[in-house]
Each structure stands twice: as structure tokens, then as C-alpha cells.
Amino acid sequence: MTYEQFTASLVTDTPPNGLSNYLQSLWFDAKNDWHRSHEIAQDIHDKNGSWIHAYLHRKEGDLSNAGYWYRKAGKPMPAYSLNKELEEMVTALLQGDK
């Protein structure tokens, strides 16, 4: 799957079959369902899960909490847009699923 296919799938009501938990979380976020995305991210206990969790709290506006999660992910808090970070995460995680 490509980033373009991922975004094209947002017209459906459910995520495509076979998406990892990481990508399911980001799919729900891209569908403007922050709470469902956060529920999934909370159950992922690795650096990628922390990265998603950080992004979600940055999006929420809770920068202190986001900073905590970025540190757990080993990443700096980006100075660029949330949309760019979402694309960066989806692309990285899609490449990791190969």
C-alpha cells in the first residue's frame, strides 16, 4: 500500500484489511476520530506507538504530554505541520510493513 492508497481508503467506513495497529490508529485519526485513534495508540507499547501517541497529544494541543511521548519515541517534537507529520508517519510505517 502507498500513502496515496491509504488516503484514498478514507472514503470507507472501516480501515482496509491487514493494516497494522499503528496504521489503524493513524487511519482513524485521519478520519477525524481522535478518540478511537488514541484508544489504539494507548495499547501500543513501543517507540512507534509512542510516536503516534505524541502526535495525537500535539494535535490535541497538550504539548507537555506530547513532549513526554516524543521523548519516549526518541524523536524531537516537530516544528512542521501536523499534516506533514501524519504523512511522514504513515509513509514510514507502510515501509516497515513490507
Describe this structure in words.
The chain starts with a helix and ends with a helix. The model has no long low-confidence stretch (mean pLDDT 95). It has six helices and no strands. By secondary structure, the protein is mainly alpha-helical.
How would the blueprint of this fold be written?
Blueprint: H1 3-8, H2 21-30, H3 34-42, H4 47-60, H5 63-73, H6 82-96
Helix pairs in contact: 2-3, 2-4, 2-6, 3-4, 4-5, 4-6
Strand content: under 5%
What gyration radius follows from the Cα positions, in whole Å?
A: 12 Å
Order of helices and strands: HHHHHH
Straight-line distance between termini:
9 Å
List unreliable stretches of 5+ residues. Answer: none
Biggest sheet details: none
Overall morphology: globular
- Structural class designation: mainly alpha
Helical residue percent band: 55-70%
Brief synopsis:
The protein has 98 residues and is mainly α. It has 6 helices and no strands.
Keywords:
98 residues; globular; mainly alpha
